[in-house]
Amino acid sequence: MRHAASLTVLLALLGTAPAALAEAPAATPGPLKKISILESSNLKLDDRYRTLKLPESPDTPELRQLREYVLKEVDLSKRSEPEVILAALEWVSIQWDHDGMNEPAPGTSSYQILQNVKQGQRYRCVEYGTVVSDLLLSLGYPSRPLGIKTPDAAYGGFGQAHVVSEVWSNALDKWIFIDPQFSMYATHQGRYLNFYEMYQLEREGRFGEIRFVPSPRYLERHKKDPAELDKEYRAFLGRYFGYMNIPYLRDGKKATLMLPLKGKGQFATFQGFQSDGLLFTDDPRELYFPLNHTQVLLTYNDARRPIDLIQEHHVTTEQEFLSKRPLFAARPDYTLTLQHGMPWFDHYELRVDGGEWKRLPGDTAPAKLHEGENTLEVRAVNRAGAAGPVNRMKIRYAADP
After folding, report:
1. Are the beta carbons of 314 and 21 closer than 8 angstroms?
2. CB 389, CB 173: distance < 8 Å
3. Which of 21, 115, 143, 322 is close enough to 136 for a disulfide, judged by CB 3.0 to 4.6 Å?
4. pLDDT for 7-46, tens place per residue?
């Protein structure tokens, strides 16, 4: 009775008396058709991607020069993901043999490193990581050199750090670990790993469950037995679960973001040398956040205020509200508004009910859903043509069975 009274009072305040409404012709409502979200990956965007130290474009003059040179040497254009990442890893890994003491002059580009290699130069793990990261950046894949350190990084002897790379995989929707010095990537139970996941397995005593996968051409070049290389690499990598670090950018200020693993506390030196711009965090999510996602806002077209609909359909009681609701319940006629978390964004694409992907001219699109199950899929595409992870929503519009 309280609901009925409140509706009557509300309508009276609006100048519409129940007695007057009683004269309106009665409508015959059908069954209530409900809008139900059955499945959805439509989640709030993570803006931490803005802290990545990335070039303004995958097509800067230096990256374009690198890409054009490498694509003449190896065909990466027709490969799907993550195969293109692994092909880039393999190619870089066999360009030179490691020399831990040869550091290039400041400002030497990855292209110039490769030209120097043709003249017989050899470089450190740092340059392996830089070249493969730059190559992947030039192909539109956000990538970063990843420093991994021993627990005694501050004042240990020589060799307290190693540089690998991590690259964002749109197909796998995660960061994955690659080590171009050894042409290695890692999996566990068929799932590609990042370095922090490897550390978690090591901490749980499950390091032996990780499968390290070298490329065939690396094995051939170095005449390595796979079992022997696996044993050597595990012993080598196992030293570096002290700290991990990535390049970091905030408000235009560059830093090195450091996450302690087995290492204790913070430090300000590396092997006794000065180490500038160290910033520490205890949250691995500051290093591992999603990229290239798209979020969707659903806005009803021709939306009307609930009170206007109540008046129009002459609702005065709770019972009338429930019985007449099929006449004015929301109908799935939407405008989709898209937003992205993608570096180098170019455009959005939309696919409806498993049809063809269609490029959108802007950041909105109409979507009038039909009765039954509807599937809406959206994704962002960057300037290199790399499509981000798919945001999929399955929505049913139907009466209860």
Report:
1. yes
2. yes
3. 143
4. 554 544 444 444 444 444 555 788 999 999 999 999 999 9
Q: What percent of the chain has pLDDT over 70?
A: 93
From residue 319, give the alpha-carbon distance in Å to each of 8, 16, 27, 72. Answer: 13, 19, 14, 74
Express each pLDDT in 321-342 by its tens digit. 999 999 999 999 999 999 999 9
One-letter amino acid for residue 337 of the chain: T
Same domain, 82 and 11: no
DSSP state of 240: G
Q: End of a domain among 269, 286, 303?
A: 286
Are 246 and 254 in contact by the 8 Å Cβ rule? The answer is no
Torsion sign, CA atoms 344, 86, 194, 236: negative
CA gap 82, 87 in Å, rounded? 9
Q: Are residues 307 and 281 in the same domain?
A: no
3-state secondary structure of 368: strand
How does the average pLDDT of the chain come out, rounded?
93
pTM over 0.85: yes
Residues 303 and 249 in one domain: no
Pairing outcome for strands 253-260 and 278-280: parallel
Tokens at residue 41, please? 């990956």
| Alpha-carbon span 236 to 224, nearest angstrom | 16
